[in-house]
Amino acid sequence: MQAQRQVNGNELLEIITAIYHINEAMKVAMSYDDEAYEYLTKAKESLIDYLISQVRGND
After folding, report:
1. How many CB atoms lie within 10 A of CB 54?
2. How far apart are CA 51 and CA 28, in angstroms?
3. How remote is the C-alpha of 10 from its chain's centroid?
4. DSSP conformation letters of 2-13
């Protein structure tokens, strides 16, 4: 039997919103600042990993 975990929808929505805003910032940074673009890419990847771990329940 697989363990079940309740995920707080508001927290997930905040993470998804943050990922959206990072994507928007990446569009601007891509044209002007390679270093900022790299930092934003790492931040986005980190948030996506965190989001996945929360949905999966850190099994």
Report:
1. 15
2. 24
3. 14
4. -------HHHHH
Which residues of the chain form beta strands (DSSP E)?
Answer: none
Over residues 27-50, the pLDDT tens digits come to: 999 999 999 999 999 999 999 999
Give the HSE-up count for residue 20: Cα atoms under 13 Å, Cβ half-sphere.
6
AA identity, residue 45: E
In whole angstroms, give the CA distance from residue 11 to residue 27.
Answer: 25
The overall longest dimension of the chain from CA atoms, in Å, is 51
Supply the pTM of this predicted model. 0.73
Position 56, amino acid:
R
pLDDT at 1: 40
